Every structure is written in C-alpha cells, then in structure tokens.
Amino acid sequence: MSHWMTVTLRCWVAFIAFTNFGAAFRCFTEDNFVRSKVFGIDSEPWKSNEGPILERMYGYWSFINGIILASCFFFIEEKKILCLSVCVIVLYLCFFGIEGYLYKTLSVHGPTIYPCVLSGLTLLWLLASLKYHPSNRTKEEIDENEVLRKQFHFKSISRKIQ
C-alpha cells in the first residue's frame, strides 16, 4: 500500500471504530436506543421483564467491533488484523441485511442507512487494501550491490588499478 492510502485508511477505520464506540455508549446509557433508532418497532417479542436486553447485546457487539477496528487502526500493516476487520464488517452488514430483508424488523431511515453505508465503504476500502498489501508481492532477494551496479553504469575500478 502506498503511504497516502495507509494514512487515510487508518483515519477512516479510526472514525468507524469511534462510531461503534459511540453506538455502544448510547446503547448502555439510553434504554430505548436500538428499538427506536434502528429497529423502529414496538412489538411484544422485543420487550423483556429483565430490562433492555436488545440494547445491551447490540452495545456489547458494537463495543467489540470498535475494539477490533481500533486494533486495525493501530496494526494496519498486519494482514490478519485486516482480514478480521473485513469479517467483522461483513457480519455487521449481514446482520442488517437479514433483519431488514428476511425478518422485516428494520425501519429504513437515517440511523439505519448511515452505518450500513459507512460499513459498506469501509469494506470496499479494506478489500482494496488487502489486494495491494505488501505481503502479496513476491519477495525477491537481490544483492543491493548488484542493484547499484545496474543503476550506475560505472566500469570497475579494480581493472584500471591492475
């Protein structure tokens, strides 16, 4: 990866991690955050006597996603961390896709579209960075003196001395 791509990808992944931490914070502090903002439903299966279970589960999930994406921010050169981040984002998008199209529990509006679009862009960018990752290139072991000799067409000084 080139330097500009690495730096901008780091900043973007940090932003996505920050949004996941923000969603986790809101899930833990607001009792009705997930049901009102994301799902937009108020049906009996989502209500519980134990309290806001859905909010806590989504909060923990967002917190773990934030930790994984923050580790991708710090260790962006590691291919395994990039692959783990791709898997996390694919699971995140699959969750929203299944809830929206299979179960029809998502209401399609700003708080639902915003994380899906950001995660989709992040997924595309991470996949592009995996394609151009330095570990994908073939490593040729070339003597550095040979490279310098090919670049500079100097004749050998040792022949003139003899």
Structure description:
This protein is 71% helix and 0% strand. It is elongated and about 90 Å long. Helix 1 runs antiparallel to helix 3, helix 1 packs antiparallel against helix 5 (110-131) and helix 4 (79-102) runs antiparallel to helix 5 (110-131). By secondary structure, it is mainly alpha-helical. The mean pLDDT is 83. The chain contains seven helices and no strands. The longest helix has 27 residues, at 3-29.
> Quaternary arrangement of the chains shown?
single chain
Rg over C-alpha atoms, rounded to the nearest angstrom? 24 Å
Uncertain runs are none
**Approximately what portion of the residues adopt beta-strand conformation?**
under 5%
Query: Which sheet architecture does the biggest sheet show?
Result: none
Helix segment count? 7
Mean pLDDT rating: 83
**What overall form do the CA principal axes indicate?**
elongated
Helix content: over 70%
| Global structural class | mainly alpha
Order of helices and strands: HHHHHHH
Q: Quick one: how many beta strands?
A: 0
Termini Cα gap: 47 Å
